[in-house]
Every structure is written in C-alpha cells, then in structure tokens.
Amino acid sequence: MRCAPARPEDLDAITAIHAACFGPKAWPRIDFENALYSETDQLTCIYRNGVICGFSQIRGDGDSAEILTFGVHPKRRDKGYGAALLCAAMTRAQAYGAAEIMLDVRQDNIPAISLYRRAGFTRIGKRKNYYKDLIDKRPVYTDAHVYKKELNLPLP
Ligand SMILES: CC(C)(COP(=O)(O)OP(=O)(O)OC[C@H]1O[C@@H](n2cnc3c(N)ncnc32)[C@H](O)[C@@H]1OP(=O)(O)O)[C@@H](O)C(=O)NCCC(=O)NCCS
Question: Could you tell which of 45, 115, 142, 146 is best to mutate to test the pocket of ligand 1, judged by most ligand atoms within 8 Å of the CB?
Fold first, then answer.
C-alpha cells in the first residue's frame, strides 16, 4: 500500500468511496475538486496496486488542522488501510504547520472511534444533537464526540 496526495484523476474514485461510506450524506464531486485546488485543504489517498482504497480530507488553519472526512472503501476495511491513511494524513498536516489535529465523530461510530483512540486521539468534548438522520421520515439526532491529538510525529 502507498499513501500520496490526491491527483485530479482520483476525483471520481474519491467521490465513489465517499458515497460508499456515507450513503445519502455523501458529498458531491465538486466539493472534492474544490478541496484538491484549495490552499487550506489536503486530500490524501491510499492506493494498493494503483487502486484507491480510501482517502482523507484535512483542513489546516494555522496551528490547528481538522479531519473533515475520512473513509476506506467497505470492501477494503480491516486490512490496516485506515490506520496507515490516518498516519499519512496527520504527517502531511504536520508538515503543513499544524501542531494539533481535531475531528468530530458520531458517538455511535465504533470503528472510527476505535481507530482514532488507537492513533492517540483523546476526547475533548461533545456536540449535542450534531447529526440529523431521517428514520421513517422522522428526524433522529445523534451527538458528535470531539477528539484531538497533538502532532509531534517524526517527519520524513
Ligand atoms: C473507520 C474506518 C476508516 C476504518 O478503516 P479500516 O481500514 O477498516 O481500519 P484498519 O483496518 O486500519 O483498523 C485500524 C483500527 O481501527 C479500529 N477498527 C477498525 N474497524 C473496526 C471495527 N469494525 N470495530 C472496532 N474497531 C475497528 C481498530 O482499533 C483497528 O485496529 P486493530 O485492527 O489493531 O484492532 C472505516 O471503517 C470506514 O471507512 N468507515 C466509514 C467512514 C467513517 O466512519 N469515517 C470516519 C468518519 S469520522
């Protein structure tokens, strides 16, 4: 496996992976295209044999960076891609000047929370009723947990 900054030819695969991860809440291709050419955002992909298995989008704002979205294709999970991608994305954020990285995660997203905790993130807060889903046409709200990690990774 190999992690690298996303390229324009990766945008379709990134959009498809995001849709496979987040279903009706997936973002349109234009959002990732804007991120690719943004001065604040970093799109990072993980490839195996040239095929994209996952990607992350991180936004840097001075000393602090935020993971905006992060996902591994459902068929590629539980193989270490998520952990490798997270490490690469954090290293890249640090290289761009971030001293800390934050993220919001659904409180019921056990795989992601386990991954972040294992990578050294600690929970620093909660956003009440942050996520809204429609179940049987009724709104159901879920809290977000806010996690943070100081960035002091060895840079290449
Ligand atoms: C979260 C996600 C990125 C993990 O990707 P992955 O490639 O399967 O993760 P890895 O194989 O690298 O696993 C790394 C660690 O994550 C945790 N983890 C991964 N899948 C897990 C699961 N189903 N249950 C519990 N912990 C899990 C474990 O701590 C694991 O370490 P271990 O294998 O040593 O126990 C993936 O499940 C995903 O894309 N989910 C949908 C999108 C999403 O929720 N993104 C995060 C939004 S904040």
Answer: 115
Q: Of 35, 37, 95, 98, nearest to 66 (Cα)?
A: 98
**β-bridge pairing 100-106 and 64-72:** parallel
pLDDT score at 156: 65
In the chain the beta strands, taken as DSSP E runs, fall at 2-5, 41-48, 51-61, 64-72, 100-106, 122-135, 138-150
Output the pTM of the full model: 0.94
Domains of the chain as residue ranges with CATH: 2-150 (3.40.630.30)
> What whole-number distance in Å separates Cα of residue 18 and Cα of residue 74?
10
pLDDT tens-place string over residues 43-101: 999 999 999 999 999 999 889 999 999 999 999 999 999 999 999 999 999 999 999 99
If we measure between CA atoms, which residue out of 109, 97, 98, 124 comes closest to residue 69?
Answer: 109
How far from the centroid of its chain's Cα atoms is residue 134's Cα? 23
**Pocket-forming residues, ligand 1, beta carbon under 6 Å:** 21, 70-72, 77-83, 103, 105, 109-112, 114-115, 118
